[in-house]
């Protein structure tokens, strides 16, 4: 559905959105499965330990559902937690290699998808991050005009 405020998505934009969603949903499913099926060595797994790792992933859920370009952009900060966790587990728990590789694939897909979706969709919508140089020039002109 496109409106005057929201131009149609180009095919490349849709591909990056699908990559982001693939990674996002993959992490939402993988993390609790991993925590449930691969319990810690002591065998005690509480509900808190099952859902605590999912909480950061739930933060961008509303914006992703609403297709908010900014949400895709800042969701990259969250996905880095899972990427770092995957790299750490790759070193610390080589016996859980399949779970670790899945986490890294999903985190990488989400990171790449979110990055380029936000970029392409932002360009389609005319959003841009102003350059510091432009902001400083405008601020200087406003200050000189006010004197």
TrEMBL record:
Keywords: Membrane, Transmembrane, Transmembrane helix. Coiled coil: none annotated. The keyword ATP-binding does not apply. The chain crosses the membrane at residues 21-39, 45-65, 72-91, 97-118. This is DUF2069 domain-containing protein. It comes from Pseudoalteromonas distincta.
């Amino acid at each position: 559905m496109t409106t005057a405020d929201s131009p149609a998505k180009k095919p490349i934009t849709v591909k990056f959105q699908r990559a982001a969603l693939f990674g996002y949903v993959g992490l939402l499913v993988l993390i609790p499965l991993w925590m449930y099926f691969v319990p810690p060595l002591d065998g005690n797994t509480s509900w808190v330990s099952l859902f605590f790792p999912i909480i950061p992933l739930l933060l961008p859920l509303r914006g992703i559902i609403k297709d908010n370009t900014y949400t895709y952009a800042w969701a990259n900060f969250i996905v880095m937690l899972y990427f770092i966790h995957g790299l750490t587990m790759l070193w610390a728990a080589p016996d859980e290699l399949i779970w670790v590789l899945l986490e890294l694939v999903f985190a990488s897909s989400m990171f790449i998808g979110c990055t380029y979706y936000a970029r392409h969709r932002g360009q389609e919508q005319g959003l841009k991050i102003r350059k510091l140089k432009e902001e400083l020039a405008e601020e200087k002109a406003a200050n000189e005009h006010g004197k």
